[in-house]
Amino acid sequence: MKNPLLNLSERRKSGIHSGIPSYCTANDLVIEAVLEQAKRFDSPVLIEGTANQINQFGGYTGMTPADFRDYVYKIAEKVNFEKDNIILGGDHMGPLVWADLKADEAMKNSRELVRLCVLAGFRKIHLDTSMKLADDPVNERLSDDVIAERGAILLKECENAYQELLKKNPASIRPVYIIGSEVPIPGGSQDDEEGLQITKPEDFERTLTAYKKKFDEYGISERWQDVIAVVVQPGVEFGDKDIHMYDRVKAEKLCSVLKKYPGFVFEGHSTDYQPKEKLRELVQDGVAILKVGPALTFALREGLFALSMIERELIPENQRACFIETLEAEMLENPKNWMKHYHGSEQEKYISRKYSYSDRCRYYLSSEKVKNSISKLFANINGVSEKITAGMLRQYMPLQYRRVRDGELSVSASALVKDCVKNVCEDYNYAVYGGSVSC
Questions:
Q1: pLDDT at site 342
Q2: Three-state SS across the chain?
Q3: What is the pLDDT of residue 12?
Q4: What's the predicted TM-score (pTM) here?
Q5: How confident is the model at residue 182 (pLDDT cuts 50, 70, 90)?
Q6: Does the pLDDT of residue 190 top 50, yes or no?
Q7: Mean pLDDT, rounded, for 187-193
Q8: In whole angstroms, how far apart are CA 352 and each of 46, 118, 184, 298?
Q9: What's the CA gap between 372 and 294, in Å, rounded?
């Protein structure tokens, strides 16, 4: 069976609007919401984990690639979603988390990581070798040749793993690959993006040339057909407080060059928080794979905060889950996941911990204390659901109020919170389903 992601460029060559969201998350409630809303579409769902989330050492989630697969499939079973319609992807697969090691050791770890991803059935691998390693020259730009050579080494490891996988399961689908050296920082920028530089067409073409050369050198030239996309910077980014909106006029030169390479599409990272119209323009212009991550957990956090405000209205103080306070205490007690990202006065950092677009609080949603607080919050809200008046729901969750009013949504804690996430998904659905192709 052919990898369904190969259809992206084929459909676009036929003039058919085609794209896919890439939901990059390891949060169980978010994944539930993503799968539930996708049931009405006859299309695969792409769910990805990053190298710092999942790797052979567990990542910050404690999961290996096989663990992540089983985790996602268990959620799919819970919501009655067909697992064969899920495409698992590995994002930033390479030496991202081992950049402080010398190249030999970092690449050894990277080879093992991509091998485990393929063996676990991941069908999309982003080969990210764009970062400098400990023994790379400090004052020189990492060359396209070095980046491409390391990428070719990883792809060859993937291919060996796929051949191993075929022996166990002859029906296994071959993975496709994403390359590209202009990779935004996972989770968004730390700074305002006034100086954001759109990828130059010549840089995109130089990337293709360098990789093609290394594929030939490493004897994997036949696998060039499995490279479907290049990560570029089309002019979208977000930071702590700001969103850099897509401007298709400024991206015109980059998008136009794609016409010369009909077998490829672009992959856009950090598309979070873009208006749905801008997301649709991105897809029309060739950015057919749209990465989204922090915006999903940001919406989840919004829903949890809203339920916490309802809890304050209806639950005695000594019985409350106090989710907002619990999350803040956990972030203060373990600051390593936000302290390098949030700056300014104590008041500014306090606000950022709650409301930053960078959404560093997502790293704390899986801690035992926070998860217990969420469970108690849900139990409290479900216990007083009949006391939640329409006016109260409209005050704190106006979008969900409309769906409850119209009989489309139940007043249950998990349903209300997941609906906040589904609102984000709907922007991406608008972007990828229907429309015209401009390049």
A1: 97
A2: CCCHHHHHHHHHHCCCCCCEEEEECCCHHHHHHHHHHHHHCCCCEEEEEECCCECCCCCCCCECHHHHHHHHHHHHHHCCCCHHHEEEEEEEECHHHHCCCCHHHHHHHHHHHHHHHHHCCCCEEEECCCCCCCCCCCCCCCCHHHHHHHHHHHHHHHHHHHHHHHHHCCCCCCCEEEECCCCCCCCCCCCCCCCCCCCCHHHHHHHHHHHHHHHHHCCCHHHHHHEEEEEECCCCEECCCCEECCCCCCCHHHHHHHHHCCCCEEEECCCCCCCHHHHHHHHHCCEEEEEECHHHHHHHHHHHHHHHHHHHHHCCHHHCCCHHHHHHHHHHHCHHHCCCCCCCCHHHHHHHHHHCCCCHHHHHCCCHHHHHHHHHHHHHHHHCHHHCCHHHHHHHCHHHHHHHHCCCCCCCHHHHHHHHHHHHHHHHHHHHCCCCCCC
A3: 87
A4: 0.95
A5: low
A6: no
A7: 47
A8: 30, 37, 21, 12
A9: 22
Token pair of 94 as six digits: 């390479």
Of the pLDDT bands very low, low, confident and very high (cuts 50, 70, 90), residue 194 is low
Q: What CA–CA distance (Å, rounded) separates 326 from 371?
A: 10
User: Whose structure tokens read 């998904």?
Assistant: 425
* Confidence band of 434 (pLDDT split at 50, 70, 90): low
pLDDT of residue 437 exceeding 60:
no
The token pair at 127 is 């080969």
| pLDDT at position 191 | 47
Q: 266 and 179 in contact (C-beta within 8 Å)?
A: no
